[in-house]
Amino acid sequence: MDIPDDELFATFGRSINDLFLRHRTDLERKRYANRIELKLEPSWIKAASTAAGPKTRWVDGTPEYSFHIYGLRKLFPDALFIHLVRDVRAVVRSMVEFHRVTGIQLVANEEEAYRYWMRTVGACLLAERAYGPAVLHRVRYTDLIEHP
Known about the structure:
Layout: H1 5-22, H2 24-38, H3 42-49, H4 69-75, E1 81-85, H5 88-102, H6 110-131, E2 136-140, H7 141-146
Parallel strand pairs: 1-2
Helix pairs in contact: 5-6
């Protein structure tokens, strides 16, 4: 078959999106159950799940995606990214303490957390250079808090 790669990846991405939308109700029910187990603030869940109709945006703050922006763009050609740059000290503190909230140890120590932060920020900077600010927009966390 002579299917161009870009068409194949984009079609696969749309299929994933459609699949997720069809299973949205089940996902939100599970998120609610997890909120109870993790004792998360109810306002967060409410804000994430009360909008009527299908979502028009995916928002996910997983730092691991920093390493996969090229692949995500192949799957979702219209995807736009926000690189939210937080103060490294706050990130390191959060990563080191993550296990206290979730029971999952992200890093063994501060040095590992600093290295991880450098790798993820570096990957985003490379993607920003490759795609430009129209696709990957950098926002400083402090600017977002001070001027929402």
